[in-house]
């Protein structure tokens, strides 16, 4: 197998971090570069077991910092870029849209310019089903790759904008690209502000679990491991210029997800607390992943097995999410960062 240098942006986040693990462990003869600014959601503690491996490298950098990004591209001569780095929490985008514009749009453009300048073999842009807007509750309707983009939040608007930029660089400059659009992910190392890890941590601590509105909003849940295998396939076999939707075939209401976790942990549904609905809260997301399945992908998890694996992981890794909630993971970064930099 030919040795490759792969740049993963946002590799200290949830999905990017899991993908870094996946590549480091499955492709030992690839050099994996994890580039992350380490904002509030960036956590290096998840990489304790791989940080000393010879094929793992960490770079702290802002993707919107053109000078630094071009310096790293020129020095390392990356073969592939897999772009996860993004501000992604919808609630935060409602209260502070500006940072989403800078990171998700300007940052993506800087990476595209560098990829074009230094002739990367492929740029894989990891996007979201939220760019499609919302579906009604008709179970026969799904997002496909041909569904028009109609984003409803500042977050999804910024992601749709970055999708258009990636497409434009392919059409205008012939940059080799793929775009993936996934449904809601869950699994190990999920930052505790998101629904599933928030619910697990609060239920374990016998704290109230907030549920927006009536809890009937529907999401299609995808285990992060299945997402990693999908991106791996697209990276190596995706047809140039194509978009691939990644869905888990696991539609659940938010309330059903919360109740499933509460039941699994043998707690009372009295912990559920309905709160004022989120602004612009999309009713339903559901993906048709047929195009990706025809490429050879198949999810390993259904929701029943995946959520039990996830709950078990959070029970067994309570120190990790407690450190995230308390902020102690920041101390780990300050102690370990210099050693990682010195290695590289």
TrEMBL record:
Cite the NAD(P)-binding domain residue spans from the record: 7-310
| Keyword field contains NAD | yes
Q: Which domain of life is it from?
A: Bacteria
Q: Which cofactor does it need?
A: NAD(+)
Q: Does the keyword Lyase apply?
A: yes
Q: Name one GO biological process term.
A: nucleotide-sugar metabolic process
The UniProt keywords, alphabetically, are: Lyase, NAD
**What reactions does this protein catalyze?**
dTDP-alpha-D-glucose = dTDP-4-dehydro-6-deoxy-alpha-D-glucose + H2O
What is the E.C. number? 4.2.1.46
Q: Which InterPro entries match?
A: dTDP_Gluc_deHydtase, NAD(P)-bd_dom, NAD(P)-bd_dom_sf
Q: Which GO terms describe its molecular function?
A: dTDP-glucose 4,6-dehydratase activity
Family, similarity comment: Belongs to the NAD(P)-dependent epimerase/dehydratase family. dTDP-glucose dehydratase subfamily.
PANTHER family assigned to the protein according to its UniProt record, in alphabetical order: DTDP-D-GLUCOSE 4,6-DEHYDRATASE-RELATED
Q: From the Swiss-Prot or TrEMBL record, give the protein name.
A: dTDP-glucose 4,6-dehydratase
Q: List the top taxonomic levels of the source.
A: Bacteria, Bacillati, Bacillota, Bacilli, Bacillales
């Amino acid at each position: 197998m030919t040795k490759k240098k792969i740049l993963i942006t946002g590799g200290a986040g949830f999905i990017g971090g899991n993908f870094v693990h996946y590549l480091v462990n499955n492709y030992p003869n690839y050099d994996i570069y994890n580039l992350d600014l380490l904002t509030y959601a960036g956590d290096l503690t998840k990489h304790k077991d791989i940080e000393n491996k010879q094929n793992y490298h960490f770079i702290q950098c802002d993707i919107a910092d053109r000078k630094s990004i071009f310096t790293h591209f020129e020095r390392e001569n990356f073969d592939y870029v897999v772009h996860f780095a993004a501000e992604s929490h919808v609630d935060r985008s409602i209260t502070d849209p500006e940072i989403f514009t800078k990171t998700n749009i300007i940052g993506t453009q800087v990476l595209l310019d560098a990829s074009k300048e230094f002739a990367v073999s492929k740029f894989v842009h990891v996007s979201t089903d939220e760019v499609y807007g919302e579906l009604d509750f008709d179970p026969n309707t799904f997002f496909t790759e041909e569904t028009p983009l109609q984003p409803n939040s500042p977050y999804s608007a910024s992601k749709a904008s970055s999708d258009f930029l990636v497409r434009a660089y392919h059409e205008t400059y012939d940059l080799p690209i793929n775009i993936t659009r996934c449904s809601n992910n869950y699994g190990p190392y999920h930052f505790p502000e998101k629904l599933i890890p928030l619910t697990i941590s609060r239920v374990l601590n016998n704290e109230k679990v907030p549920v927006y509105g009536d809890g009937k909003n529907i999401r299609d849940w995808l285990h992060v491991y299945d997402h990693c295998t999908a991106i791996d396939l697209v990276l190596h076999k995706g047809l140039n210029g194509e978009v691939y939707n990644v869905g888990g075939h696991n539609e659940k209401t938010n309330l059903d997800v919360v109740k499933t976790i509460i039941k699994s942990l043998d707690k009372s549904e009295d912990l559920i607390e309905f709160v004022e609905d989120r602004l612009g809260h999309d009713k339903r997301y559901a993906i048709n992943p047929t195009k990706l399945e025809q490429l050879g992908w198949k999810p390993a998890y259904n929701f029943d097995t995946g959520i039990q694996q996830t709950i078990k992981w959070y029970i067994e890794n309570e120190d990790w999410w407690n450190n995230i909630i308390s902020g102690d993971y920041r101390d780990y970064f300050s102690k370990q960062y210099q050693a990682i930099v010195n290695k590289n």
